[in-house]
Each structure stands twice: as structure tokens, then as C-alpha cells.
Amino acid sequence: MTRKRVIVGMLLLVAVTSVFYSLAFAEGGAWLERKHGNGKKAMLANNGNVMYSVYVGSTADATVRHAAQELVDYLTQVAGAPFGLTISDGTPEGPALIVGKHPVTDALVPELSNGQLGDDGFVIRSSGSRIVIAGSGSRGTMNGVNYFLDRYVGVKWFSPTYTFVPDKRKLQVSVDSDLQVPRFQYREMFVNDGNDEQFRAHNLLNGKSHYRAQVASVPGLDSWSDYVPTGVHNFHALVTDAVYHSGGQLLAMNEDVRRIAAESLIGKIAQRKAGGLDPSYGFSQQDTTWNPDPQSRSFAEAHGGSLAAPIIDMIGDAANRVRAQIPEARIGTLAYQFSYPAPTGLTLPDNVVVTLAPIDKDHGQSIDSAGNERYGQQIAKWAAISDHLVVWDYLTNFNGGGYLQPYPNLYAMADTIKHIAQYPAVKGYFGQQTGGARGPVGVGFDELRTWVGARLLWNPDEDVNDLIAEFVNGYYGAAAPYIGEYIELIHQSLADSGATLTISTPIASPYLSFETMRQADGLFGQAEAAVSGDPAALNRVQRMRTGADLIILHRRAEFAHEADERNIVWSLDVANRLQRFKSLTQNMPSFRIDNGDIQQLYQLLELERIAPPVPDIVQNMPAEDWIDVQDIDFRLLSGATAVYDGKASDHAAARLSGSSTAWGIQLNNTSLPRDGRWKLYAYARVDPGSGSPGAGAFRFGLYPTVSAPAGVTFGEVSDGEYRAVEIPWTYKYNPELSVQYLWFQPSASGAIQNLYVDRIVAVREKPPAAYNPGFETAAPDGPYPDGWQAAGGVWDSGTAHGGSRSIRLDPEPANAFHVVYTAVSKWIPVVPGQAYKVKGWIKNGSMTGNVSLGVRQINAANGSIGYAWHPGAQPDSDWTPYEVSFMAAPTARFVSIYFKSDQQTDGPAWLDDVSIEEVP
């Protein structure tokens, strides 16, 4: 994971910073230039003398003229000499830069008319004293000019607010023949830094989706790609009659649904055409789950079990109907959550564009990594269904610390782009870095990720290490070595911690550890000192620092406590840090999707917490076996808020009014581990109301896997103190569930004034194991095996399958309950719905009767649910393995292993070496 080349390069820069930068800027930013072969050298200007004119044809449209004017303006700035623009169809007099199609380009650039450049490609070609920069269309020519200024001249549009313009009084370029066609037809980095269309054009991005599509382009820039049809999550908007809505989506196999959908799409597309827009529209599932109708489910089962099958069959049908009326029409749809797995035995018409949106993958790893296998393998399967695919990549945190939280996925993004580039069917990429128009501008990795992503979407073969170094050097100036180290630090911490990046990665995620954040803070201190005399560069450094400041402010009590414990000096400088953070984020409307108002964030940060003590239920437990999730990582909805609470473990808790009827306090599964099984405990209390002891105080559930919620009565919590409420279901991450969360809600009784939830503690549940399975250990208070009870039975030290002891049942004709079984204190926890197998070795000395191994299932009230038994051991047999299988009932909490012999046996029977295991 470590990108040694980047960090080594950055470290080398530390030693030579002052010399390096004085030379770099004296040479006009030579450190930023890319070489383009050994073409003919052309002197564009020399010490105030302009050698080349810029020509554009008289029929050039606004986009081409705007590009030509930009070429003139930037060359003038770079050379410090006035370049001129000539609008003429005549043969240029003297050396010329010819922009776009022109009467002289037909012979020089035949590629302009043979279709190989597409909408975005271009040619930069030298012929004699002429340099042609032209595409087949306006956008291609615009791209060519921007590419020329960037790669050949050295102008770098690092962000909408910062452009590096080199100072080259001797402006010379080397041009041969450079034909450029982007690998991806559609290229969008969705971040508010990218809302500036000119900035996106400069960096060869062409995507304009979501709310951006509603914003009119400025003159000269109205040339964005319409490859991805507008409109998502609109099944119900296009088929409005609720009689056709089913399980959250539509009756996908219903003929009337398909007809209505096609009619609605025809109307929408005709309306767009009338307004001069492209003839396309989206037809996509609602942003929720689907409990399909029997006909849709049956169709899915017949096509690989994927719920995408009925969806894309419906969309393909509708697309064909639309095309019959509007031949050029195109339809867009999503493969998202339940519809992400590709179906079998189906294909889509070529007028349908499918956007693959693997929202649940680990966004800190490439889509082709081992951890993302179930997501990455779907790319090839979809490529067999459709030739028009777009990948929607999630590059930000929607909850937790939101868009501001350090989100180290630069390399994951790069590797994902490189991986999907191998599939010709993948025509586009949408990199989401914010939830919408209310997100931040210019903080954290946003600008770096946008700039690097734009280049890789044009050419995935570029080296991500080189790109990161180029941006960091150019954008952060003398602070570059320290920013480079921070980038590597946070990415390496993610890799070392094994943490997962989701759309709701918690603030307390292990990659944001004490040591990582302490080192990050030190690097930013050095970075700020390096650019202290450059206010603009200092501001850029501090905007990168906002993410580290956010984590340190949130977790300052925890970090201060650890520093004291380890005798480490670390000044958290809370007052100045909070002031700096506020000054850099005060104009940000929202920092995350849910409860994202920036003022709410400030209130959270101003809460004075303490370092929470280790929960009582995990005292002396290894750290890797439990997780403490505090209120800062809850989702707070419908009036729930974080407040000071001196009774809470860290003096803060989530509070929800007792009059609320909403699931207002939630813990998303993305804040919980993806490995193993976990028992959850909620530390909760109430402000008592007028409830009676038996009245409900609050309820909780695990959506969507638990249909019947559990609850706590007023009598249990009426003292107003925190108690650990055991959640009576075992949590296990299920990748098939796109949405899963634990929720809390006041009961409808009105028994309480307020509900408080302080923390959720997750305790790793170990694989089931029988205690003292070989009967070797004696009980502390008697000569019988520890952890076992017997209604008859002898602890035998003379016969054993393994070790030196076993348990024996001798014939007792009068004993109807002649058994040995697991003692109450050693009952074995089980997971409802999980299959198990109990095994044991039996030696049977009886010729008659029944000797059997069995298991009893037990509920939360310690009552029996039922028994399962092996049919019986072979009479007069030596040690033989036997097993009994069972499925844990929905209400099962424990099991007890049983060994019995009935009243008809005529000889002894022994049991040894029992075990229990899960069945996959």
C-alpha cells in the first residue's frame, strides 16, 4: 500500500526546498512540465518578441473562439508579450497557431474528418511553421487548447481559485504529432470545487449531472457531455399510480407498468427535444430496498437470482418502445444496491446506459481488490450485458465526520480507474466527493483528488505517484514535503489499521488513531511554518488541515488522556484550533448528508467531553474484541441532537424528546465491523416522566433484519441512570443488505421526557464452543466434570476416547431422565437462523435400548424451545463419531448438549470429546 516513490521524493525535497523553489520559479516552473517526444522546437516568443500568431476560422463557434482567446491570453501572461488573435479563413502569414478547423487544416489533419477523434479528442501537430490544435468538434478543439497550455506550456489549473502560470520570457515548445482521445467518453469529478465550468474544461472534464445540469453554461462553454441521461431514482415519478408500486419499487413484469413507463419517457424526451436538449432521460429505481412481487421474484430466480433481472428487462422493454417513437432516444438506469449484481441470460438494447454504483464496497481499496471481490467481479458480468456502462465511484464520507473527515482513497480511486479502463464497455466514470450543492469547497483532498482523477480519466496509464507529486509541489509550494508526508501517513495508517472506508466511516475509525493524528498535526505545523510568509499558500495548507483539525477537536479528550498516559507532550491548542477550523468552514452550508448543518457541527465540537472509561462489560477484554461507538458517530434525525450530559461516559450523549415517534437515534452498520459476529449493548437512560412501572420507556430494533422490535419498561429505567441494555440479536455484517442500522425510539406511552443514548458497545462473539468438551477438568466443588450436570452418570477415569476421562451412563431402568447435559452456567450462545452441528464420540456397551447425542435450544427466558436428537448409537460398538444438526430458532439464545440412554439399555455407554460448530 505504501507509495514509497512519493514519500521518498517528498523527503528529498525537505533538504533542498529553498534551492529547489528558487530554481523552479526562475525557470518558469520547469518542474511541472511534461515532455512530449522529440518534436520540432518552436519558439513562440523570445524576450518580448512574439514569433507566432493565433488564427481561428471565421465560421468558428463561440466555444472555439473562446478557446482561441484563452490561448492568446495565457500565452501573453506566460511570455510577458502580447499575442494576437486573427479571425480569418485566409492562409496565415508567418508562423501560426491554428485553433480548430480552418481551410488549411484539411490537408494537415485528416483525422478531423474521419471520426476517430470522437467528441473530445484532438490533434496537436506541427507542420513547417504552423502548429494546429484542433478536434473534430468544438469540445475537442477546446480540450486541445487546454491540453496544449497545460502539458506543453506549463499552465496548471490546480483549483478554481489557483492557477499556476509560469514565467517564460523565452517560450519554446516541442511539437511533433500528438493525437489524443480520452479513454473515458464521460468524465465527471463531482465536487463543489468542480462547479466552476471553466475549471472543469481546463482539466478536460466533461460531466454535468445532478443539480449542475440545471445551471446554464456561460457562453463558450456550452459543450458538456450528454452521455449519461438526466434523472435518477424516479420509478414512482414516471409511473405515478400507486397501484403499480410494489415493495418500494414497481411491478416490474406488469404490462401496464411498462406501457406507462414508455409513455412517460416519450413525453419527457419530447419535452427535452423541444427545449433544444438531448433526447434522453433516466428511468431508475427508488433509493430504497425492494421486496418484489412474486412474478418479479420468479423472473429474478430464473436469471441468476439477481433482482436486477426484472428491472433491466422492464427498462429494456421500455427503451425499445421509446425508440419506436423517437429513434435517437436514450435511456439511463442504475445498477445499485439490490440491483447491482448482474443477472444472467439477458442483454440490454444499445440505447440504454447503465450506471454501476457499488455503494457498499470498501472505498479505501480498489474495486478489483480481494476485499471488494463481490463488487469487482460484477464489472465483467455487466460488460457482457451492455456496451454502455458508467461506474459511479464513492469518494467521500456521507456521515460520521462527513465531507471534512480525512478520506484516504487516492490510490484506491486511481487503481479503480485503471481497472475499469480495461473493459471497453465502461464508457464513463462519476467520482462522487460530495452529497450535493451544499457541500464544502476546497478542503482536505478534494482539489487533489479532482485534479488527479481528471488526468487519469483522460489517460489511465499516467502514474498516480507522479501526478500526486506534481500537484502537491505546484499547489503547496514550500510546504509540499510535509503535505506529501501527510498524504502517505494517512493512507498508510488506513492500510495498517485494516479499517474500511464506507460512506459512513466513523470518526473513531482506527486509521484516525492517536499516533497518526499526532504525527499529522506535527506535519501541518511544519507545513504552515514553511509558507508563513505566503498568505495564499498558507490558506491552502490550512484548508488541507481542516480534516485533521476536525478529528483532533472531536477526540481531544481521548487524545489528551492517551498523551498523559504515555507521557507524550502534545499541545492540542483547542481554542486556536477551533477558531481556525471555524474560519475555514464558516461559509460551508453542510458538512455531511444527515444533520449536516455547519452550526450543528460547531455545537458538537464545543461540547467538553472527557475520555470515556472502559465499559464495565468489557473489563479485561482484549482491545480487538470490543468497540466503543460514541454519540458523535450516531445518525441523529427528527430532532435528535447531541447534548452535554454529566452522567454519560464522555459527558455527551444523543438526546431525543420523549414525544418523538421517530427512529431518531440510529447507528448505521457502516460504523460496525465487517468481520465476525458481535453482541451490541446500548448505554441508555431517560428523563423520567409520569409513566407507570410497566409502561414502555423506549424501543429499539435492527432494520431491516428484525421485524419485531424490543423494548425497555419505565420501571427498568425510572431512576434516570444509565444502564447497559443488551440488544437481543447478534449483529453480523451482511453484504447483501445495502441498508442496515440499529434504531432507538421513545415508546408511544409518553412515560419519559427524554431518551438519552450515550454509547453503543459491540463485543465480539466468539465461535461456539463446548466447555470442558473432554470431561478432563473437575468441578471446584466436587468429583464430577466442571460445566456439566447429570441426572445419573459417572465421571469415568478408566475409559476415554481422548485424554484420560469420559462421562458414563449405566443402565437405570427406573430413571426416565437418564441424561448428562451442559450446565446452565456453560450454555452455549447461538445465533438465530444459523445452522449448527454438534459432534461427539460414543462408546456403546448396550445391546438394547437407545443411546443418543442431542441438543436443546433455549430462549432468552431460559425456557426450552425444543430438542434435536441423533437416532441412536450402534449397539455394542467401540468409539464412534456421531453428530446432530439443527437450525437455531428465531428466539434461540443458547443451546445445551445432551447425552442420554433410555430405560431399555442393558449396558454402559460413554461420551467423550464433544464439539459444536457452525455450518456455512
Name of the CATH architecture of the largest domain = Alpha-Beta Barrel
Global geometry: elongated
**At the third CATH level, what is the topology name of the largest domain?**
TIM Barrel
Count of DSSP H/I helices: 20
Largest sheet: 6 strands, mixed
Radius of gyration: 34 Å
The unreliable regions are 1-35
Structural class: alpha+beta
The end-to-end span amounts to: 32 Å
In terms of DSSP E residues, the strand content is 25-35%
User: pLDDT average, as an integer?
Assistant: 92
Overall strand count: 41
Q: Would you state the CATH class of the largest domain?
A: Alpha Beta
Main sheet strand line-up: 4-3-5-7-6-11
Helix content: 25-40%
Give the domain tally: 4
Domain CBM-cenC: 770-902
Organism: Paenibacillus hemerocallicola
Keywords: Hydrolase
Pfam family, one: DUF4838
Tell me about this structure:
- The protein is of the alpha+beta class.
- The chain has 4 domains: 33-181, Chitobiase, domain 2 (2-Layer Sandwich); 202-476, Alpha-Beta Barrel (TIM Barrel); 614-766, Galactose-binding domain-like (Jelly Rolls); 788-919, Jelly Rolls.
- The strands form 9 sheets. The protein has a 6-stranded mixed beta sheet with strand order 4-3-5-7-6-11.
- α8 crosses α9 (308-325), α14 (480-497) runs antiparallel to α15 and α16 (535-554) packs across α18.
- The protein starts with a helix and ends with a strand.
- Residues 1-35 have low confidence and may be disordered.
Describe the structure using short key phrases:
about 900 residues, alpha+beta, Chitobiase, domain 2, TIM Barrel, Jelly Rolls, 4 domains, six-stranded mixed sheet, six-stranded parallel sheet, 20 helices, Galactose-bd-like_sf, Hex-like_dom2, DUF4838 domain-containing protein
